[in-house]
């Protein structure tokens, strides 16, 4: 096999490395047994041997990983949607905390975090907020954040000091472009849901809200926060594409990857995945059963990796288990 | 400075093409050299919010003007443009900063009071208050004497883009933007043209040509866009028959409707850019007539109109009076469903 043809079979390259490594290990072992009189030589050989054994293990893991099925969305950017659920104003305030947690986390990761739309509640919490996050492996890192995040704390609105339980739903959608979802202009209806009038030169308005309706699916997306109609439209289209892509992914997923998803959590927005308990200062992830007692660090985006890394490891282990069982 | 911005309409007239107009720098581009305290800024913010809230839907009912919600959104944008460090300083919890801490702003606090009063009480357009308009992916400088580009007009750039994608020859040719105002269309089109593509933008108003030149320069397009002062095709005589495309958003409001316009428009925007004569179509007809000799065979045109009735009239006018000169003439709707544009091609 030539080097060039190896490039087309990276997993074989790994295999060959492992084979070479095996040979080296075999030789080192024979050196050790043959040089019983030369202690220095023996010592040196066993040092090299332990390095080689270590290296060989790493190779094997890498090789295994390279053979595991991958989510092709892993490298994509994502759309983050946070919605206040049960719990009224308190849920909206917590939705804002969660939204900002991901912003801080993104900044720390060197990702670009762009707010697309915020619907404020009366107390300046967020009824709904949408952001676009872009950078390296954004979707891979954040995909397991989808689900219900529950909060237990004394709301600022609570006079009697009782602890309330509220919920916020988070959705992470991989970003897609119009080609990914084969979007056709004729399937879109774009309108400015403004009150009548002649428009054009007659009107001076800074309201350039745009609503896009995808007629085949009936999905509508409205954006009004941007300062130009063109930008409102671009953002609405971005969200629409992500939604259509997600629908397509869910319906196309093979039974095998569905199984993988099931093991960590359905990815379903209605599944309760995490609880933030303020009186006890703890955050618990119900899927990996991990609890951290630094709730502030989590909300500052510092400690979120504790969960994310555990979930990614779990995904990998599940995949390995599934892989070796088939 | 109160009211100094309201110019008599006649000052924009033809007589002095050499008038030097110095374009104003938009608020967001000025250096943050003014200092205030967080407490004072918050005080101003509260005052401004309550002024905006007091409007309710009064302007909306009166002349389709802005309601409180719209004004409050504009207030957020004013803060965004005025504050040196925009990170929602006013929303931050009290613990992290004390009231005496300094905030850097791009104009003095007194001026912020004046500006917001002008916005609400005098109905001065928000875009003149901050000196810019966000249009497509551009931020264009605007000031009194220049029409604020409208969201509907953004679509003309998309129409040009579609025409170019269908016939790549248009990408490297000469384009004309007649009555360019702030330069919006010329700049929007220049950015989708190829390396040889050029735009000539004309306007009768010296304020408009000064502002358009400033915007062209801000987007580094001096090589691609030439701004010339003069009426419609007059500055283009040397290039007759050379254009692969012509676009325009000419004045199209019938004279009798000018008095009833929304206050932001009628009281503050230049009549020169709005009043299209008795039928509103004086300039549009002039443009359709002129396009025959200015466009190359196969050249494209897109003009904005007052909507359904004017568009229908103009399509009919071209098909009967300019028989054989144009092909594929059609009306195109804006996002509000109004037949806002007419487009077509010069016959080959």
Automatic annotation (TrEMBL), chain A:
<dbReference type="Pfam" id="PF00472">
    <property type="entry name" value="RF-1"/>
</dbReference>
<protein>
    <submittedName>
        <fullName>Peptide chain release factor 1</fullName>
    </submittedName>
</protein>
<keyword id="KW-0488">Methylation</keyword>
<keyword id="KW-0648">Protein biosynthesis</keyword>
<dbReference type="InterPro" id="IPR050057">
    <property type="entry name" value="Prokaryotic/Mito_RF"/>
</dbReference>
<comment type="similarity">
    <text>Belongs to the prokaryotic/mitochondrial release factor family.</text>
</comment>
<dbReference type="GO" id="GO:0003747">
    <property type="term" value="F:translation release factor activity"/>
</dbReference>
<dbReference type="InterPro" id="IPR000352">
    <property type="entry name" value="Pep_chain_release_fac_I"/>
</dbReference>
<dbReference type="GO" id="GO:0005737">
    <property type="term" value="C:cytoplasm"/>
</dbReference>
<dbReference type="InterPro" id="IPR005139">
    <property type="entry name" value="PCRF"/>
</dbReference>
<feature type="domain" description="Peptide chain release factor">
    <location>
        <begin position="30"/>
        <end position="145"/>
    </location>
</feature>
<dbReference type="InterPro" id="IPR045853">
    <property type="entry name" value="Pep_chain_release_fac_I_sf"/>
</dbReference>
<dbReference type="Pfam" id="PF03462">
    <property type="entry name" value="PCRF"/>
</dbReference>
From TrEMBL, chain B:
<keyword id="KW-0489">Methyltransferase</keyword>
<dbReference type="Pfam" id="PF06325">
    <property type="entry name" value="PrmA"/>
</dbReference>
<dbReference type="GO" id="GO:0032259">
    <property type="term" value="P:methylation"/>
</dbReference>
<dbReference type="InterPro" id="IPR052663">
    <property type="entry name" value="RF_glutamine_MTase_cyano"/>
</dbReference>
<keyword id="KW-0808">Transferase</keyword>
<keyword id="KW-0949">S-adenosyl-L-methionine</keyword>
<dbReference type="InterPro" id="IPR004556">
    <property type="entry name" value="HemK-like"/>
</dbReference>
<dbReference type="GO" id="GO:0008276">
    <property type="term" value="F:protein methyltransferase activity"/>
</dbReference>
<dbReference type="InterPro" id="IPR029063">
    <property type="entry name" value="SAM-dependent_MTases_sf"/>
</dbReference>
<dbReference type="InterPro" id="IPR002052">
    <property type="entry name" value="DNA_methylase_N6_adenine_CS"/>
</dbReference>
<dbReference type="GO" id="GO:0003676">
    <property type="term" value="F:nucleic acid binding"/>
</dbReference>
<protein>
    <recommendedName>
        <fullName>Release factor glutamine methyltransferase</fullName>
    </recommendedName>
</protein>
């Amino acid at each position: 096999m030539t080097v060039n043809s190896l490039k087309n079979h990276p997993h074989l390259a790994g295999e060959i490395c492992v084979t070479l490594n095996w040979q080296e290990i075999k030789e080192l072992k024979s050196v050790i047994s043959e040089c019983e009189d030369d202690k220095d030589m023996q010592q040196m050989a066993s040092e090299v041997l332990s390095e080689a054994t270590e290296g060989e293990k790493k190779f094997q893991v890498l090789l295994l990983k390279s053979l595991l099925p991958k989510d092709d969305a892993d490298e994509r950017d994502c759309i983050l949607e946070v919605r206040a659920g049960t719990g009224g104003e308190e849920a909206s305030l917590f939705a804002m905390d969660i939204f900002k947690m991901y912003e801080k986390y993104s900044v720390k990761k060197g990702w670009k975090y762009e707010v697309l739309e915020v619907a404020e509640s009366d107390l300046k919490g967020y009824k709904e907020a949408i952001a676009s996050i872009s950078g390296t492996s954004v979707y891979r890192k954040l995909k397991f954040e989808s689900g219900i995040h529950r909060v237990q704390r004394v709301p600022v609105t609570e006079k009697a000091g009782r602890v309330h339980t509220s919920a916020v739903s988070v959705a992470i959608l991989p970003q897609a472009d119009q080609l990914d979802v084969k979007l056709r202009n004729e399937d879109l209806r774009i309108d400015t849901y403004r009150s009548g009038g002649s428009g054009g030169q007659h009107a001076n308005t800074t309201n350039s809200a745009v609503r896009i309706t995808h007629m085949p699916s009936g999905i509508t997306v409205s954006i009004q926060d941007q300062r130009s109609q063109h930008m409102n439209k671009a953002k609405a289209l971005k969200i629409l594409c992500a939604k259509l892509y997600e629908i397509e992914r869910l319906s196309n997923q093979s039974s095998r990857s569905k199984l993988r998803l099931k093991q960590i959590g359905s990815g379903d927005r209605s599944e309760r995945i995490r609880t933030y308990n303020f009186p006890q200062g703890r955050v618990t992830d119900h899927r990996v059963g991990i609890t951290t007692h630094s709730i502030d660090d989590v909300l500052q985006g510092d400690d979120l990796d504790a969960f994310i890394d555990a979930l990614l490891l779990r995904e990998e282990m599940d995949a390995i288990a599934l892989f070796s069982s088939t | 400075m109160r009211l100094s911005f309201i110019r008599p309409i006649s000052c924009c007239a033809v007589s002095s093409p050499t008038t030097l107009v110095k374009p104003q720098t938009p608020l967001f581009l000025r250096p943050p050299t003014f200092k205030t305290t967080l407490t004072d800024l918050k005080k101003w913010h509260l005052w401004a919010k309550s002024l905006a809230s007091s409007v309710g839907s009064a302007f909306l009912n009166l002349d389709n003007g802005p309601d409180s919600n719209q004004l409050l959104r504009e207030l957020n944008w004013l803060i965004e443009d005025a504050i040196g460090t925009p990170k929602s300083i006013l929303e931050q919890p009290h613990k992290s900063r004390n009231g005496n801490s300094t905030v850097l702003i791009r104009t003095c606090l007194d001026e912020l009071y004046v500006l917001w009063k002008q916005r609400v009480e005098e109905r001065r357009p928000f875009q003149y208050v901050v000196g810019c308009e966000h249009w497509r992916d551009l931020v264009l400088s605007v000031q009194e004497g220049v029409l604020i580009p409208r969201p509907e007009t953004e679509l003309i750039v998309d129409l040009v883009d579609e025409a170019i994608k269908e016939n790549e020859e248009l990408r490297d040719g000469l384009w004309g933007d007649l009555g360019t105002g702030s330069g919006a269309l010329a700049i929007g089109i220049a950015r989708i043209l190829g390396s040889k593509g050029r735009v000539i933008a004309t306007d009768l108003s010296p304020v408009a040509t000064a502002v358009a030149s400033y915007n062209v320069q801000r987007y580094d397009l001096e090589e691609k866009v030439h701004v010339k002062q003069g009426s419609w095709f007059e500055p283009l005589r040397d290039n007759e028959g050379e254009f692969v495309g012509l676009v325009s958003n000419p004045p199209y409001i019938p004279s009798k409707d000018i008095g009833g316009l929304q206050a932001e428009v009628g009281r503050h925007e230049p009549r020169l850019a709005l009043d299209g004569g008795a039928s509103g179509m004086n300039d549009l007809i002039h443009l359709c007539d002129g396009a025959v000799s200015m466009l190359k065979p196969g050249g494209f045109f897109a003009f904005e109109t007052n909507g359904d009735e004017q568009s229908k009239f103009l399509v009919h006018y071209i098909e009967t009076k300019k028989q054989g000169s144009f092909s594929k003439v059609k009306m195109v709707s804006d996002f509000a469903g109004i037949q806002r544009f007419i487009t077509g091609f010069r016959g080959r």
